[in-house]
Write a structure and sequence with these properties.
The protein has one domain. About 40% of the residues lie in helices and about 15% in strands. It starts with a strand and ends with a helix.
Length: about 260
């Protein structure tokens, strides 16, 4: 069996639809997909169940595939049964994880800053896996407005209303409203906008970054965490385009975006 790319998603909808659309339109082999069925804080709990565990002790001794096999989520068991039987960690050359910022699910024992710990732990796709965070959630991927550069989400006490907000589109952005109807041209425009937005968040410049080091996941989190701590807001941003930026490399992706 050839080495494959493993994609680990937080949820089933619309996560799978987005990844499948990207795979089809960009001809990417992202065929092995696992649904974790729980949020980033539950993933953290599954790792740090021992209060004495330190991140430096885990960096070279953990693999995302082996870790998530321990999930007791019903969604996980129902969706991933065949995959767990047919694959081992050694079958994958690259492992990528996509989770949501989701501050509503943070607790006293698993506070919001643990996301940074997770980003530092899962920072290498060829080893333990590479983690990407969406702000506020996966729905940010096609949540595009006329003022996208400055688009943020104001978190409300007591619950999650972002999905409803993300489902509201202006006339100018209706071409992005349904994942299944997005064509290649619109997909590439989504990728461009989110890459420019990531560069704006990190470097205050709404242009395509020249290198992935300009929009690292930890740096994005640091900026978003400050914004959230001060004003209960984060910029709307999908990290899936950043994942594509890393996979393709600057020159190839820039060529795609210029076609």
């Amino acid at each position: 069996m050839n080495k494959q790319i493993l994609v680990i998603l937080e949820g089933k909808k619309p996560d799978l639809a987005i990844i499948n659309k990207i795979s089809t339109l960009l001809n990417l082999e992202l065929s092995v997909q696992i649904i974790f069925g729980a949020n980033i804080y539950e993933l953290y709990r599954s790792i740090y169940d021992d209060e004495f565990t330190k991140i430096e002790d885990l960096s070279f001794g953990i693999n995302a595939f082996d870790l998530i096999k321990e999930s007791d989520s019903e969604t996980f068991k129902n969706h991933n049964h065949a995959i767990l039987q047919n694959y081992t960690a050694q079958d994958f050359a690259f492992i990528y994880l996509f989770f949501d910022f989701d501050p509503w699910s943070a607790t006293e024992s698993r506070p919001l800053p643990i996301i940074k710990n997770m980003l530092e732990l899962f920072n290498e796709p060829t080893e333990q896996g590479k983690l990407y965070i969406n702000y506020p959630s996966i729905e940010s991927f096609n949540h595009i407005t006329d003022n996208f550069q400055d688009l943020y989400y104001q978190y409300q006490a007591g619950g999650d209303s972002y999905k409803k907000v993300a489902g509201s589109y202006t006339t100018e952005s209706k071409q992005y409203s349904q994942i299944k109807k997005i064509d290649r041209r619109n997909l590439l425009e989504l990728i461009r906008l989110h890459l420019q937005k990531a560069n704006f968040i990190c470097n205050n410049d709404f242009v395509l970054p020249n290198d992935i080091t300009e929009i690292e996941q930890v740096d994005i989190f640091d900026k978003q965490f400050i914004f959230y701590s001060q004003e209960q807001k984060t910029y709307v941003l999908s990290s899936i385009p950043i994942f594509l930026f890393e996979m393709y490399g600057f020159e190839k992706l820039r060529f795609l975006l210029s076609v």
